[in-house]
Amino acid sequence: MAEGNDTLQERLSSEYSAGFVTDIESETLPPGLDEDTVRHISAKKEEPRWMTDWRLQAYRRWRTMHPPRWAHVQFPPIDFQAISYFSAPKGDRPKSLEEVDPEILSTYEKLGIPLHEQEALAGVERPRVAVDAVFDSVSVATTFRETLREAGVVFCSIADAVREYPELVRKYLGSVVPRADNFYAALNSAVFSDGSFVYIPKHTRCPMELSTYFRINAQNTGQFERTLIIADEGAYVSYLEGCTAPMRDENQLHAAVVELVALDDAEIKYSTVQNWFPGDAEGRGGIYNFVTKRGACLGARSKISWTQVETGSAITWKYPSVVLRGDGSTGEFYSVALTNNRQQADTGTKMLHIGRNTKSTIISKGISAGQSQNSYRGRVRMNPAATGARNYTQCDSLLIGDRCGAHTFPFIESRIPSAIVEHEATTSKVNEDQLFLCQQRGIDPEKAISMIVNGFCKEVFRQLPMEFAVEAGKLLEVSLEGAVG
Amino acid sequence: MTAAELFHARVLEDGRQLRNRPLYAPWLDRGPSLAALEDVPLPEPRSYTWEYSNPNPWYERNASGSDHDGSTEGIAASRGVEVSDFDAAESRERDVIDANLNATIDRRRYPLAFVNDVLLHRGVVIEVPAGASGAEIELGPLGGDFERVLLVVGDGAEATLLERPASPAHRIVECLVGADASLRHTRLQSATDSLEYHLVSSRVSAGARYRFAQYAQGSTMRRNDIHIEAAGDGADIEIHGAWHLSGRQHLDTQINVHHSAGGGTSRQTVRGVVDDRAKAVFNGRIHIAPGAQRTDAALSAKHMLLAPAAQAYAKPELEIYANDVKCAHGATMGEIDSDALFYLRSRGIGEAIARDLLVAGFLEEALGDLHPGEARALLNVQARERLA
Predict the structure, then answer these.
(1) Whose CA, among A117, A254, A354, B82, lies 20 to 30 Å from B359?
(2) Which of A187, A200, A191, A186 is nearest to A260 (CA)?
């Protein structure tokens, strides 16, 4: 019995395990945003003139735009002049892992992110993952760069890419998410500080999974990272993204842009486990996660697959989308979004079918608990040229407790008879028969709920790389704590 | 100024003038609606609820004002049903109107209801006494541009309301269905060249049953807003919608089923066929308010596109704030099933007739038992003409 209490105590206190602060010296711009801020960030990154101009144009467009108001979320207006747009650990950028501040290394260690290129441990071959670690506004380390370079794969911070591969960056940056696509994308285009850049050459299968780990550490800052992934003809890459932030009383803004480009026969698999600080049980603090993610299937038979597990953030506003331009291209979206306490999520996808015989699949699982609001918002559009296109959408929502909300807003648009669209959605509470069955076999209610929720999300977890799937399952369990009873 | 703003200003101006010398039902106090309209903007094109329909031509057509012929025809009711025109209402009827008019309408959500209040050309109040059975009401054209029908079905009464084709610019039909009462409401809309914007707003009390069917063809722009509230425990709602559009017709149907009390059920079945260059817009929302536990709600919406330039837009929405509920919706879009077509043709049925049969069968799924004969006649007219 005593043991049982201990475990329970332990689990209750483990609410948000990534909520610690790393005490390092950092160089932070004072809050505020004007053209000088943009120039300053650009200068800090030693960017060429064209990049500075690109940012300034985005900034000027942003000033004329308004934040979107259609999402099913509520929050007080954000004072964009009260945010600091750049924060970096002090000192020169480390040239190798040995030079990285040990405090930062231990931060990632605590989070379970391997920044050492350990290949074989005690004879056990571990699957290798190359990591780009972004700490506040800068990339602090990218592992396995050499191994990847041998395969011709470019994996580096976007700041490095602007200097080293300007022709690729110029060609593709903003080609999927234009600078003035929406309010937050424009803001990101003006002030983005770092993020990852990936280029997979023709007919290359990336030899390992690539991963970026984002960490907001400094107070009163926003994180605006930008990721660009290009898979050339016949290439394949699987990319993972993780994120955490310390627990703080105030809300912090995270406005990222992710652009994916798949050429003929290429495939990009993009997985996210989003665990930004969700705020406390009363809804104080937490990250505003306002992210624009979009992939373009430019080439014939290309494929882009988004998998996301969203458990964190006070507010999520995120619609990973696919523009299906190439004939026979495929778009996929697999999502688990869990909200608890006072979290709000408005998330989903857009599948824009332009090419012939394009296909898309959407599987969305929403779980609402506490007093949270969880919305699926999607758009499936069949353009007049998309003959033989096909979409299948399934949105299921699970409600735990009688004070939360689950909503579905799918837009279905067809301008071509031969395209077939199917959409179905269900909403219900946790099945009492299943719960009864578990309890009858001596499984406590909390564990039983977590098992049922895991089963509910199975179709999505199956799409995740192995280690991520295990982590996602655990994360769900932790996020649901206190939701029962 | 946008078309909506111009129209808004025009209505306010007309409203102020009419207030001093109302032509119709002078006893009605239009003051509060006029005042409220001052700070309620009218929907703009490309706004959230008008993404696929453009209200501007409607504003422009109606900005010029119009003369109605003042006829008092267009309504028939069985014995025992009380019908009175707003203009001729005596004090008892006035009390009924004052107590119930706009009771079911959230006019900030449907701001054209304020416009209807201000510009009202013709209004009728229909009362079905409590406990009455077999009451029948038929509505035809009522003769105005801005019309209002208020139907009050007493507790335990049974009634049917049939709306025959009419094309006013704006008609509001408000139904209050009393406890344990039953109302079967059918609306027929034929093809026209008009610009129309209508609202059905019904409140269903505890234990009551409301069945609503809308069989429609399009017009230049026809928008139907339908708001139905399950307001009492165990209210039972069934909605059928079928449309068959051709030419350049445009039909926009927005159904909002609002469960504000527990134990209710609602079923929505919608089938649309879109031919030529026509455009069908459908929004079907199920809203379950906090505390509306044990609700069981479902929606099925399917569209069939018959021509390369036909367009369909559907948005089945769920907004759920209670956990002990069962909700589901499904929506599909596509063309005629080629396997089914092949099956019929392999049995010697010509392609045109085979297609016609499949279209008719598809629409049949949404007909139910509310005036199916009338519905078939309305929806199949074009198909038969093509066959001839």
Answers:
(1) A354
(2) A200
For A58-68, write each residue's pLDDT tens digit: 999 999 999 99
Lowest mean pLDDT among A169-183, A370-384, A400-414, B54-68: B54-68
Look at residue B73 in the predicted model and tell me its pLDDT.
Answer: 73
Residue of B nearest to A423 (CA): B331
Report the domain count for chain B. Answer: 2
Secondary structure, 3-state, A280-337: CCCCCCEEEEEEEEEEEECCCCCEEEEEEEECCCCEEEECCEEEECCCCCEEEEEEEE
Q: Are residues B291 and B302 in the same domain?
A: yes
> Rounded to the nearest 5 degrees, what angle is found at the Cα of A299, between the Cα atoms of A296 and A301?
105
List pLDDT tens digits, range B201-251. 999 999 999 999 999 988 999 999 999 999 999 999 999 999 999 999 999
Residues 6 or more apart whose CB falls under 8 angstroms from that of A224 comprise A85, A137, A187, A188, A191, A192, A193, A254, A255, A256
**Nearest-by-Cβ selection for B335 from A417, A422, A426:** A417
Taking 50 as the threshold, does the pLDDT of residue A107 lie above it? Answer: yes
Question: What is d(CA B40, CA B32) in angstroms, rounded to the nearest whole number?
Answer: 13
3-state DSSP: chain A helix, strand, coil percent, rounded to 5? 25, 35, 40
- With a cut of 60, say whether residue B67 has pLDDT above it: no
| Whether residues B114 and B226 fall in one domain | yes
Same domain, B118 and B80: yes
Is residue B292 domain-shared with residue B342, that is, in the same domain? no
Whether residue B324 is found in the same domain as residue B373:
no
The tokens describing B12, both together, are: 């306010």
CA dist list (Å): A64 to A31, A61, A80, A180, A187: 20, 5, 14, 10, 11
**B103 and B200 housed in the same domain:** yes
* Half-sphere exposure in the Cβ direction for A242 (13 Å, CA): 23
**Distance, in angstroms, between A60 CA and closest chain B CA?**
25
**Within this chain, do residues B251 and B378 fall inside the same structural domain, yes or no?**
no
Which chain B residue's Cα is nearest to A428? Answer: B326
Interface with A, mutate which of B333, B336, B355 (most A CBs under 10 A): B333
Per-residue pLDDT for A402 more than 90? no
The Cα of B143 is separated from the nearest Cα of chain A by a number of Å equal to 37
Question: Model pTM?
Answer: 0.89
Encode pLDDT of B122-159 as tens digits: 999 999 999 999 999 999 988 888 999 999 999 999 99
How sure is the predictor about A141, in pLDDT bands with cuts at 50, 70 and 90? low
Is the complex ipTM more than 0.85?
yes
| Two tokens, residue A139 | 């990339």
Residue-number span of the structural domain to which B373 is assigned = 336-388
pLDDT band at A112 (very low <50, low <70, confident <90, very high): low
Q: Which residues contact A253 (CB under 8 A, 6 or more apart)?
A: A78, A83, A222, A223, A287, A288, A290
Q: Are residues B320 and B342 in the same domain?
A: no
